[in-house]
């Protein structure tokens, strides 16, 4: 067994660090207000929409990332990507998360950037959507969840009815990441079958300016970057047959095949975040003295750090094992879910331990811990809640 990191992961991480130093850090210094303790107030306007100055930074990083070859790195070469495998990508993701909050989170485009689900596009659709997306000219969003159906998304109420050579979409989606800014949405609607059928759901490509499609309220969330998630409304939204992505009725399976990779990204990122918080906490514990001794010399503190270090190493090996199985072409659904479950819990534990070790200082907005504490909570909810991961693991076992 070889536990060393693949040389490609080491090289990409090094290149990304140089890129951050040269291209991203100057922007962070120039626009410090978007990262400081009042960052939330500055990022959005009174309607909770991100302000043009902030959107311009996101776009600038996207353009630079495309030029440097990072943007579509995980996509196949046939569509202009870097063909980086899932293990390498996850390790790089871990390293990228092991740093303070910053604009580097926009380098890969997040939920608005290139995604393998768009490989379902035919050649015309690739020309219209996928290639401009790879070039950073447009962004997308993934619209599956609805007000009444999240974990059971295939019970969706959104329907698309055929009318001549058009489809008419009616329904509502919620919590859609990048929804307010996407140039087009990947929208899932029932086109046949009964509520809850896995088959009969179709994926559509819907332009942001398509009549009948509107961005509703922008959600105000507990953590993450404000102004990112929105409701989407479809009211007699007519699209042509050429907007069906993949096969009619196969949209849900397409969506699910994408979600597995997303779960590993979350696990890897959680390990990076936890490692960063552990390193901060160790440093603080060495220097902070109470009762004439550094708190690091108290078992009450050092055992918390030891436990966290052990948990980080467990999840690191678990996500890498899951990713390795995927690169071998083996079924890894159980391991993906295990890694996502434990990774999400780890990020929350790390934020909690870091806050405890830092005492009052950790609770204040001057340090990044308070922000991490809020933002890590969502990792246990999106891309399948803890309970849904356990359901998947149990189904694989039984
Ligand atoms: C910040 C954020 C960003 C998001 N971005 C997107 C996006 O871009 N696109 C998108 O489509 N969706 C997105 N989502 C939606 C997300 O995927 C859902 O919130 C998630 O799948 C859970 O669905 P729900 O909120 O409807 O909760 P529900 O499904 O209603 O679950 C409520 C509770 O019941 C539990 N539960 C449900 N079913 C079971 C069961 N069978 N057994 C045991 N427990 C169960 C859940 O674990 C949870 O604790 C986002 C959500 C958030 C918070």
Strand tally is: 10
Alpha carbon gap, first and last residue: 29 Å
CATH fold category name of the largest domain: Butyryl-CoA Dehydrogenase, subunit A, domain 3
Estimated share of beta-strand residues: 5-15%
Protein name: Acyl-CoA dehydrogenase
Keywords: FAD, Flavoprotein, Oxidoreductase
GO molecular function: acyl-CoA dehydrogenase activity; flavin adenine dinucleotide binding
Family: Belongs to the acyl-CoA dehydrogenase family.
SSE blueprint:
Blueprint: H1 7-30, H2 39-43, H3 52-68, H4 86-97, H5 123-134, E1 140-143, E2 159-163, E3 166-177, E4 184-190, E5 201-207, E6 213-218, E7 229-240, E8 244-245, H6 251-287, E9 289-290, E10 293-294, H7 299-327, H8 333-358, H9 360-363, H10 369-375, H11 386-397
């Amino acid at each position: 067994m070889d536990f060393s990191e693949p040389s490609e992961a080491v090289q990409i991480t090094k290149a990304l660090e140089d890129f951050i130093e040269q291209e991203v850090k100057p922007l962070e210094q120039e626009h410090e207000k978007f990262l400081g303790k009042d960052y939330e107030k500055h990022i959005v306007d009174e309607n909770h929409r991100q302000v043009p100055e902030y959107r311009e930074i996101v776009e600038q990083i996207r353009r630079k990332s495309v030029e440097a070859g990072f943007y579509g790195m995980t996509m196949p070469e046939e569509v202009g990507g870097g063909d980086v495998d899932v293990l390498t990508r996850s390790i790089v993701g871990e390293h990228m998360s092991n740093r303070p909050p910053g604009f580097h989170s926009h380098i890969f485009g997040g939920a608005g950037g290139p995604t393998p689900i768009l490989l379902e596009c035919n050649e015309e659709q690739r020309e219209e959507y996928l290639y401009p997306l790879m070039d950073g000219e447009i962004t997308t969003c993934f619209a599956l969840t609805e007000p009444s159906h999240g974990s059971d998304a295939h019970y969706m109420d959104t329907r698309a009815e055929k009318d001549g050579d058009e489809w008419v979409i009616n329904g509502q989606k919620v919590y859609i990441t990048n929804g307010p800014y996407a140039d087009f949405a990947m929208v899932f609607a029932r086109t046949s079958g009964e509520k809850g059928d896995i088959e009969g759901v179709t994926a559509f490509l819907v332009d942001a300016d398509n009549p009948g499609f509107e961005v509703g309220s922008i959600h105000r969330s507990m953590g993450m970057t404000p102004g990112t998630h929105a409701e989407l409304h479809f009211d007699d939204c007519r699209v042509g047959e050429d907007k069906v992505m993949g096969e009619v009725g196969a949209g849900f399976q397409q969506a699910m095949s994408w979600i597995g990779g997303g779960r590993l990204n979350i696990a890897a990122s959680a390990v990076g975040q936890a490692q960063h918080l552990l390193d901060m906490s160790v440093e603080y514990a060495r220097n902070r003295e109470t009762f004439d001794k550094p708190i690091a010399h108290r078992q009450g503190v050092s055992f918390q750090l030891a436990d966290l270090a052990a948990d980080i190493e467990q999840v690191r090996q678990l996500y890498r094992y899951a990713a390795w199985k995927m690169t071998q072409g083996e079924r890894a659904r159980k391991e993906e879910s295990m890694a996502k479950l434990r990774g999400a819990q780890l990020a929350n534990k790390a934020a909690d331990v870091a806050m405890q070790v830092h005492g009052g200082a950790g609770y204040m907005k001057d340090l990044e811990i308070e922000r991490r504490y809020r933002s890590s909570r969502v990792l246990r909810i999106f891309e399948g809640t803890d309970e849904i991961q356990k359901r998947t693991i149990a189904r694989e076992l039984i």
